[in-house]
Amino acid sequence: MPKLRVLVVDDEEELVHALVERLQIRGMDAHGVTTGKEALERIRSEAFNVVLLDVKMPGLGGLKVIEEIKNQHPCMQVIMLTGHSSAQDAQRGKNLGAFEYLQKPVNIEDLCRILRAAGLREENCQE
């Protein structure tokens, strides 16, 4: 399997940098952006296997972003990440096609395991 390409999307810039660095150390081709709009722009111009997406962001929020991603790239896997868990948001994310819904802070080893599993699903997906 080629190197897993991950896009980290969160309005907390320090968190994005930390996650990208930790994922790169673990052999993933990770990139980060801090807005939903930037995420959609990057996804239009580059291929990613998995998107790690914050639910609550100013402007274009995570639930709208996942909807756009799944409309354009049904096989791209999205893992929702939130610091403000809500059963309603979790259910909506799952209904929109989220692979997983995680609560911050997330254990990096658990996250890597989930990202790899999502990458396998994306690899085996037929659009």
Shape: globular
Number of domains: 1
Order of helices and strands: EHEHEHEHEH
CATH architecture: 3-Layer(aba) Sandwich
- Count of helical regions: 5
As a percent range, the share of strand residues is: 15-25%
CATH topology: Rossmann fold
What would you say this structure looks like, in words?
- The chain is globular, with a radius of gyration of 13 Å.
- The relative contact order is 0.18.
- It has a five-stranded parallel beta sheet, sandwiched between helices.
- The longest helix has 16 residues, at 108-123.
- It is an alpha/beta fold and 127 residues long.
- β1 (5-9), α1 (13-25) and β2 form a beta-alpha-beta unit.
- It has one domain (5-111): Response regulator (Rossmann fold, 3-Layer(aba) Sandwich), CATH 3.40.50.
- It starts with a strand and ends with a helix.
- The protein has helices at residues 13-25, 36-45, 62-72, 87-95, 108-123, and strands at 5-9, 29-33, 50-54, 77-82, 100-103.
